[in-house]
Amino acid sequence: MATCTFCVGSTQLVRQQPLQNTLQRQVQTSAYDTTATVQKLRDQLRYYAVAEIAGRPFLITKNDKVIVNRLKDVKVGDVLKLDKVRELGSKDYTLKGSPYVPENVFNINATVIEHTKSKLIQVVKKKRRKNYKRTIEHKQTHTVLRISNVDVL
């Protein structure tokens, strides 16, 4: 043990070494395990996915409407292929990626329905006793997506 130079009296600073024999959770994923899980998923009727759209995760299923922050590079009617999926599953089975599920396992498409704005948001800035008050009004732009299919290949 090392003595703390800033402490008064007999208080001592204890340095703890990390435990060498701690149990670590090991997840074994081999090609066989993945193909077996994918085969079990194929036998299910409906799927869900946790997909990243514009850097944010969304829980999606087929025919869902997803409202995301404005995507500048897309037009109404464009079809987007979602490739960053964290989790893919059904009622009985789940395939989790680390960090993402491989792209050759699934096919998820989304169609751009519209670009819209939110309702008017008013922000009031005020400083007390300074006779300062400002009202800022803002409408956030959004893109609405329709998930056209969630399939396991």
TrEMBL record:
GO terms for molecular function: RNA binding; structural constituent of ribosome. PANTHER family: 50S RIBOSOMAL PROTEIN L21, LARGE RIBOSOMAL SUBUNIT PROTEIN BL21M. SUPFAM superfamilies: L21p-like. It comes from the Eukaryota. InterPro entries: bL21-like (IPR028909), bL21-like_sf (IPR036164), Ribosomal_bL21 (IPR001787). One of its GO terms (biological process) is translation. Pfam families: Ribosomal_L21p (PF00829). It comes from Mucor ambiguus. This is Large ribosomal subunit protein bL21m. Belongs to the bacterial ribosomal protein bL21 family. GO terms for cellular component: mitochondrial large ribosomal subunit.
